[in-house]
Structures are given as C-alpha cells and as structure tokens.
Amino acid sequence: MPRKTFTERETRVLVSMKLLASFWQRCLPAESTSSDEIEHLLGLDAAGLVKARFDPPTRKRTGELSIARAVVLEVTAEGLSALVRARRQQPSLLEDMPVRKARRVRPSGASTDEAPGQPGLAGPGKISNRW
C-alpha cells in the first residue's frame, strides 16, 4: 500500500502531536533547548495544549529572533483530548505514541482527615468538609 503524502500543514500538526505525546510521557516540568521543538511548543502553548514558559527572545547577528529555552510545565486537559483525537484519527501514524495512565494530584490545601490516596473522601469514621 503506498504511503500517503502529507501537506506541509499536516506534517507540522503530526510533528506537534508527537512532541505533545513525548511531553505527556516525561516527568514535568521538562526543558527543551531545540529550536525546532521550541517552535512547535510556541504553537502548542498558544493553542492551550500545554502550559510552558519561554526565555525572552534574543536577536542573532543575522537579525533573526531566537528563543534559547522552553520549560513545559503541564500538558493541559485540552492537550490530552487532542492526543486522544489524533490517535483515533491517525492510528497507524501515532501507533508508537505511548498511552499513560492519568496521574492523581492531591489538591493544595487538602484536609489531613482525608482517606489516604482518596482526595475529597473522609477517612474511616470521619466526615469530609470539602464537599
């Protein structure tokens, strides 16, 4: 079966989705200094698929602007949703994209009366005041 050729836009989207998937697998925050990755991260951040911080742009001698470093703080719920949709639409292209189970994060200010590992649930014989 001949391989499908992609437009420039489709290629950019595919590369961005693979980058998004790689950051979903990493322990965050994660740093990137690759100019290609930073370019894609700017788009992913603007689209709300990741939350990232970028070093201020600097001007090279050629006049070109450059960003030295990006730090990805979070893959957003919208980012995860986009990954799931992309995998459904292009399973053969994203089949190597690993799937990670969602991590539970304890909300800040959580009561110490909660059951271990169960945010919002009271421990035995206790009533939770969070809800």
Key features of this structure:
disordered C terminus, two-stranded antiparallel sheet, 3 helices, 33% helix, three-stranded antiparallel β-sheet, 7 strands, 131 residues, single chain, alpha+beta
Report on the architecture of this protein.
The protein is α+β, with helices and mostly antiparallel strands and 131 residues long. The chain has helices at residues 8-25, 35-46, 77-89, and strands spanning 30-32, 50-54, 58-59, 65-66, 70-75, 114-115, 118-122. A hairpin with a 5-residue loop joins strand 3 (58-59) and strand 4 (65-66). The protein is 33% helix and 19% strand.
- Which sequence of strands runs across the widest sheet? 1-5-2
Q: Look at the structure and give the mean pLDDT.
A: 78
Cα end-to-end separation: 56 Å
Q: What percent strand?
A: 15-25%
In total, how many beta strands? Answer: 7
SS-derived structural category? alpha+beta
Order of helices and strands: HEHEEEEHEE
Specify the helix fraction band: 25-40%
What characterizes the major β-sheet?
Answer: 3 strands, antiparallel
Outline the low-pLDDT stretches: 102-131
Shape: globular
In short:
Helix content is 33%, strand content 19%. The chain is an alpha+beta fold. The strands form three sheets. Strands 1-5-2 form a three-stranded antiparallel β-sheet. The chain has a two-stranded antiparallel ribbon with strand order 3-4. A two-stranded antiparallel sheet has the order 6-7.
List the SSEs and their pairings.
Blueprint: H1 8-25, E1 30-32, H2 35-46, E2 50-54, E3 58-59, E4 65-66, E5 70-75, H3 77-89, E6 114-115, E7 118-122
Antiparallel strand pairs: 1-5, 2-5, 3-4, 6-7
